[in-house]
Design goal:
By secondary structure, the protein is mostly helical. It contains 9 helices and 5 strands. Bound molecules: zinc ion. Zinc ion binds next to helix 3. This is KIN17-like protein.
Length: 263
């Protein structure tokens, strides 16, 4: 280590960086004002415009703080996506790039007191893969966009597979139904031979009711008697009306019954 180390490009770069970081302290986020040094910053804080800004901040400090935090995070991740999308990179490297923009949201205006705290937050919320090494924190951007696309693809694949599986199952079920039907065949034909008998019985009862209503034959069973009573009542009422209408009404009623019988 010689005296000339002080003038090496690396040493100069380090001093510039340090100065840059030092300057961050003299930045007023509310006024977006960069001051040259401590003295300049003190002067700025005494100014009327700064006092006005601080009043606004005082009215809703939480909202303003979370607003800056959100913006800081968003811009930081944007930079990660733009410059380090597919690489594992030291958090300090990204941060130095980030603060290169004079009007970046300054970290001391956010909810995070240190870069480490912010990096841990990124890891905790799954926005970056983070790991602590002897050389400091390293972060890897998690590409939500391509991850989403990948997941979407996998989902579609799964759906297709499910559909194929469902079709197979349906075919299998159909086969089983057909088999079962073949086995059932003899039983069903027996049932079929029984059915016409019940139909005939139904027809017979229909005929009986028909006769009771039409001809006034005495029929067994309460229901047919009731039907006759209703009919007689109707007849009495109809007598008051003219005969022709009554007859045609009867005809129609009979025709209706005949039609029902045929069915
Ligand atoms: Zn200010």
């Amino acid at each position: 280590m010689g005296k000339n180390d002080f003038l090496t490009p690396k040493a100069i770069a380090n001093r510039i960086k340090a100065k840059g970081l030092q300057k961050l302290r003299w930045y007023c986020q509310m006024c977006q004002k960069q001051c040259r040094d401590e003295n300049g910053f003190k002067c700025h804080c005494m100014s009327e415009s700064h006092q006005r800004q601080m009043q606004i901040f005082g009215q809703n400090p939480d909202r303003i703080l979370s607003g800056y935090s959100e913006e800081f995070e968003q811009n930081f991740l944007e930079l990660m996506k733009r410059s380090h999308r597919f690489s594992r990179v030291a958090a300090t490297v990204v941060y130095n790039e980030f603060i290169h923009d004079r009007h970046h949201v300054h970290m001391n205006s956010t909810q995070w007191a240190t870069l480490t705290e912010f990096v841990k937050y990124l890891g905790r919320t799954g926005k970056c893969k983070v790991e602590e090494t002897p050389k400091g924190w390293f972060i890897t951007y998690i590409d939500r966009d391509s991850e989403t696309i990948f997941k979407e693809k996998m989902k579609n694949k799964r759906i297709k597979l499910d559909m194929v599986e469902e079709e197979k199952q349906e075919k299998e079920i159909q086969k089983q139904i057909e088999k079962a039907e073949q086995l059932k065949m003899p039983l069903e034909s027996e049932e079929n031979s029984k059915q016409p008998v019940t139909k005939e019985l139904n027809l017979e009862s229909g005929v009986k009711i028909g006769f009771t209503l039409g001809g006034g034959n005495v029929a067994k069973g309460e229901s047919s008697n009731n039907a006759r009573l209703v009919f007689e009542e109707e007849e009495n009422e109809n007598k008051k009306k003219n005969e022709e209408k009554e007859n045609s009404g009867r005809k129609n009623a009979l025709e209706e019954l005949m039609r029902k019988r045929r069915r």
